[in-house]
């Protein structure tokens, strides 16, 4: 008897009976033998004997494949529970440290549980399998297996455009970050660097980040894009893109406001010519108009501008006149006579002196007086003449004209076209 439960019976042979009990469950059992008695002997129960039945300790084998992987790679976990006699039943838990990854029921009579763990984060993981036990087998924890999960290495593509330019040019930096293998999309930010100097940090939008700057100084710039990494992808810096920035040559730029004029023939119009220096231009600017239509003229106020290397623009007012006045000059026949006659009369006494040395002193005085009176008369005659003539006004013909406005001075040479319509 197991307590009050009959285990079985046996026939006495020479006063002895034996019985083999194989189905005792785990635990403590109070076993007694009960003699039924016969015609000569009374029935009798033996003293109890305590029997302790322990659970069977199975074997538990854990496998992890692979033991080294990258984020996103599935890890195959397998647990095999092997017993003696009956097949172990129950469940197996797979744990990452103290975190339960999943729980599975042992399949059939094989005592095997399998699990594919795809979500292990980057780092070192201590994986164990815990068998729950059953009526025959004690619960058991496997030996830990270490699985190392590494971050994925991304692929960073970086461009800088343009590769050359002058100071102030707009340089656009673009980076694309993709998974080089496996699945997943990198997240996080990208730093754009000029050598070791961080220009800016930009969050990825999708897989891209971009940045534009006009602040690169004169010289060669070794530009890179540094991806900062995230929980699935490692940090990575792109290859170098070189951008060469040169100084702006000293120059000026011209603008006209307004850039077109409508002028009635015979009238005038004005526009403002603004001169903007660049590259530290220093010098004196002189203005001029190129090809002008007939009877037109241009005037600048002021006619020159002086720059001393700064960046401040200056302006002049340009006036276009579409009317021209000319004067005709007329001469009298005797205009050039006084000087010639004067010289001839001065020489007359000398000529007469050569011919006749017999002239008296009084005769010489008379001839000299006659010469002086003649000269005075000639000058008077000449003074009675006039320059005579008149003025002529001509206007620019109606039409559309393009007048180039140019400047010169030092290293500056530039122009702007002014569109003029004469009506």
Would you kindly provide a written description of the structure presented here, covering whatever features stand out?
Helix content is 10%, strand content 49%. The protein has two helices and 33 strands. Strands 6, 8, 9, 11, 12 and 13 form a six-stranded mixed beta sheet that branches. It is mainly β. It is rod-shaped and about 185 Å long. A hairpin with a 2-residue loop joins strand 32 (399-409) and strand 33.
Q: Which term fits the overall shape?
A: rod-shaped
Give a short account of the largest sheet: 6 strands, mixed
Low-pLDDT stretches: 330-337, 378-388
Q: Mean pLDDT across all residues, rounded?
A: 86
Distance between the termini: 136 Å
Structure annotation, total helices:
2
Helix content: under 10%
Structural class estimated from helices and strands: mainly beta
Compute the gyration radius: what is it? 60 Å
Strand content: over 45%
Oligomer: single chain
Number of strands: 33
């Amino acid at each position: 008897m197991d307590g009050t439960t009959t285990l079985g019976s046996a026939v006495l042979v020479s006063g002895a009976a034996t019985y083999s009990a194989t189905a005792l469950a785990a635990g403590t059992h109070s076993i007694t033998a009960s003699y039924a008695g016969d015609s000569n002997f009374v029935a009798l129960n033996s003293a109890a004997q305590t029997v302790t039945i322990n659970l069977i300790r199975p074997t538990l084998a854990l496998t992890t494949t692979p033991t080294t992987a990258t984020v996103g790679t599935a890890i195959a976990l397998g647990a095999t529970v092997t017993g003696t006699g009956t097949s172990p039943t129950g469940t197996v838990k797979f744990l990452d440290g103290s975190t339960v990854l999943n729980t599975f029921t042992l399949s059939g009579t094989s005592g095997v549980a399998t699990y594919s763990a795809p979500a292990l984060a980057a780092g070192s993981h201590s994986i164990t399998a815990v068998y729950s036990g059953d009526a025959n087998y004690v619960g058991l924890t496997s030996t830990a297996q270490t699985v190392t999960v590494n971050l994925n290495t991304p692929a960073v593509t970086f461009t800088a455009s343009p590769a050359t330019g002058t100071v102030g040019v707009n340089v656009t930096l673009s980076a694309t970050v993709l998974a080089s293998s496996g699945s997943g999309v990198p997240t996080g930010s990208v730093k754009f660097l000029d050598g070791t100097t961080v220009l800016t940090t930009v969050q990825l939008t999708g897989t891209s980040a971009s940045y534009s700057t006009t602040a690169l100084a004169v010289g060669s710039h070794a530009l890179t894009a540094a991806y900062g990494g995230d929980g699935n992808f490692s940090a990575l810096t792109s290859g170098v893109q070189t951008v060469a920035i040169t100084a702006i040559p000293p120059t000026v730029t011209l603008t006209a406001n307004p850039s077109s004029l409508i002028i009635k023939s015979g009238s005038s119009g004005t526009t403002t010519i603004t001169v903007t220096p660049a590259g530290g231009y220093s010098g004196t600017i002189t203005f001029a108009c190129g090809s002008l239509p007939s009877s037109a003229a241009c005037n600048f106020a002021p006619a020159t501008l002086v720059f001393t290397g700064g960046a401040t623009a200056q302006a002049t007012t340009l006036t276009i006149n579409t009317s021209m006045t000319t004067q005709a000059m007329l001469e009298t026949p005797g205009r050039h006579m006084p000087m010639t006659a004067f010289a001839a009369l001065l020489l007359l006494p000398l000529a007469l002196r050569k011919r006749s040395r017999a002239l008296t002193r009084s005769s010489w005085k008379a001839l000299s007086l006659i010469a002086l009176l003649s000269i005075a008369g000639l000058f008077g005659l000449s003074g009675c003449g006039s320059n005579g003539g008149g003025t002529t006004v001509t206007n620019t013909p109606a039409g559309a004209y393009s007048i180039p406005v140019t400047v010169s001075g030092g290293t500056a040479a530039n122009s702007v076209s002014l569109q003029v319509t004469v009506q």
